Amino acid sequence: MRSLFFALPCLLLVGAACQRTTERGNSAPMVSSITPDAPLRETRWVLRQLAGQPVPAVEPNGQEPFLRITGAGTAEGQGSCNHFRGGLKPVTNDGELQFGPLLSTRMACPGLETEQKFTQALDSTRAYRVAGNTLLLYADAERTGTPLAQLEAVYLR
């Protein structure tokens, strides 16, 4: 009788533990493998492709080309060796983006060709799409065809 008195609570504990494990497994929140979209503004967008082609590695004296759109509605960044800054033109629809004239320093460097293509892509931009950590810039509001530029959100630590 005494062994039954101790065995019954043990069986109940084992059964409850199994039940909790099953419930926890069923009720645990799903971990999504989808990356949430990075915000367009106040993100450092590093240039990865121009017209579908990978951006060449940064030269020893150059810096990684990037774009940052501020909360105040200005654009700033770096080509390879030159800094640029300018405004955004007003848009009427979501997904549209157009840069105003960009002012830039004028230093010569080995990455100047990439820098010029990057500036031309920004000048031609009329729309964008953010997908996860990727920013795509397009020449038309319909966002069709090969993007002018592909940039990646890089978070500073």
Automatic annotation (TrEMBL):
Signal peptide: none
Residues of the DUF306 domain: 38-142
Spans through the membrane: none
Superkingdom, taxonomy of origin: Bacteria
Source organism of this protein record: Hymenobacter ginkgonis
Any single Pfam family the record assigns to this protein: META
PROSITE patterns: PROKAR_LIPOPROTEIN
Matching InterPro entries: DUF306_Meta_HslJ (IPR005184), HslJ-like_sf (IPR038670), Hsp_HslJ-like (IPR053147)
Protein name: META domain-containing protein
